Amino acid sequence: MGGGGGSVAAWLCDRVGPTGGVLATDLDTRFLDALDRPNFQVLRHDIVHDPLPAEAFDLVHTRLVLGHLPNRAPALDRMIAAPKPGGWLVLEEMDFVSLAPDPSSGAEAVALIEGVCCPPSSGDGAQLRPLL
Ligand SMILES: C[S@@+](CC[C@H](N)C(=O)[O-])C[C@H]1O[C@@H](n2cnc3c(N)ncnc32)[C@H](O)[C@@H]1O
After folding, report:
1. Which of 12, 26, 92, 94 to mutate to test the pocket of ligand 1 (most atoms within 8 A of CB)?
2. How far does the centroid of ligand 1 lie from the alpha carbon of residue 73, in Å?
3. 49-97, pLDDT tens digit by residue?
4. Contacts of 33 (CB under 8 A, 6+ apart)
5. What CA–CA distances, in Å, run from 56 to 25, 60, 88, 93, 110?
6. 83-92 and 22-26: which strand pairing?
7. pLDDT score of 24 more than 60
8. CATH 3.40.50.150 fits 7-92, yes or no
């Protein structure tokens, strides 16, 4: 999901071999379209709004996509529903929640980093921060 430049998709194509298949999706498929593999398919797809088959994939992977979505709950619901029973869902994101600015950077820099990485209105991260 949100395959971008296709590096993970290409790696997966090599892993699944000629009897397997890889489907990569993105809003912008121009880089995925350039990946020429016999076991590879590309789908222009908006993970927030477009339907996705449920219980259809052995592995569903996304990296650095959810953090870009202002409304990520429907996307997450689709990703959770997409693996076959017993399949895998792998979500990779940067960890901005446990990031701690260096106090020796000065109050202004600390406030700037905290404001960018975990502002009060940023949803899930802002709710988790007090727990850490
Ligand atoms: C930071 S790039 C990560 C690309 C790739 N996953 C990687 O790790 O190399 C974010 C990708 O998410 C895609 N994207 C953003 N919003 C999307 C959406 N609503 N549905 C599908 N893809 C989306 C962008 O087009 C972009 O390719």
Report:
1. 26
2. 16
3. 999 999 999 999 999 999 889 888 999 999 999 999 999 999 999 877 7
4. 42
5. 14, 9, 11, 23, 45
6. unpaired
7. yes
8. yes
Supply the pTM of this predicted model.
0.82
Which residue lies with its CA nearest to atom 27 of ligand 1?
4
- What's at 64, amino acid-wise? L
For the chain, the domains span: 7-92, 96-132
Q: What's the confidence (pLDDT) of residue 130? A: 45
Q: CB under 8 Å to 130, separation ≥6 — which residues?
A: none
Between CA 102 and CA 130 the distance in angstroms is: 18
Distance CA 96, CA 67 (A): 10
pLDDT at 80: 96
